[in-house]
């Protein structure tokens, strides 16, 4: 269940229930909904049908600041996405580049197939089979 922002929430370990309590004022009372709304909005008269020009200017300035912050975040996210697009390449392209460098890149599947064939081979010694099982355990654990 949703609780109001600023509430104190705890898990009672004896009963297993979650408990919530509204924060208290200096005088020991919990805020009413109207008091919390007034605090959140500042010294704006929320009951009146009209606002002063100063109140409107302040509200507009806050909206513009939050809009600028949102634009900064969205542009940063876009930069991160394009940077990631440049960092990552398809596996086929990587294999070709490694082959040019005389480095053979194997996938986990290819390595596991080799280890299984080594384990099943009658030419392998007991130590080689045990080592193959340990290596297989590592690769299977990742999967």
TrEMBL record:
GO molecular function, one term: adenyl-nucleotide exchange factor activity
Biased composition (Basic and acidic residues): 16-46
Keywords, sorted A to Z: Endoplasmic reticulum, Protein transport, Transport
Keyword rRNA-binding: no
GO biological process: protein transport
Annotated InterPro entries: Hsp70_NEF-Inhibitors
Start and end residues of each stretch annotated as Disordered: 1-46
Keyword Transport: yes
A GO CC term assigned to this protein in UniProt: endoplasmic reticulum
Annotated protein name in UniProt: SIL1 factor
Organism whose genome encodes this protein: Atlantisia rogersi (Inaccessible Island rail)
Source organism phylogeny: Eukaryota, Metazoa, Chordata, Craniata, Vertebrata
Gene giving rise to this polypeptide: Sil1
């Amino acid at each position: 269940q949703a609780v109001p922002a600023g509430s104190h929430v705890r898990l009672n370990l004896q009963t297993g229930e979650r408990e919530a309590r509204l924060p208290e004022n200096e005088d020991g009372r919990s805020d009413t909904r109207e008091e919390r709304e007034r605090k959140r909005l500042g010294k704006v008269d929320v009951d009146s049908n009209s606002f002063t020009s100063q109140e409107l200017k302040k509200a507009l300035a806050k909206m513009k600041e939050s809009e600028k912050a949102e634009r900064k975040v969205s542009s940063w996210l876009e930069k991160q996405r394009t940077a990631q697009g440049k960092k990552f390449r398809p596996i086929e392209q990587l294999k070709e580049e490694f082959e040019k460098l005389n480095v053979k890149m194997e996938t986990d599947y290819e390595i596991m197939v080799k280890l299984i064939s080594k384990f099943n081979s009658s030419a392998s010694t007991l130590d080689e089979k045990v080592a193959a099982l340990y290596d297989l355990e590592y690769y299977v654990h990742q999967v």
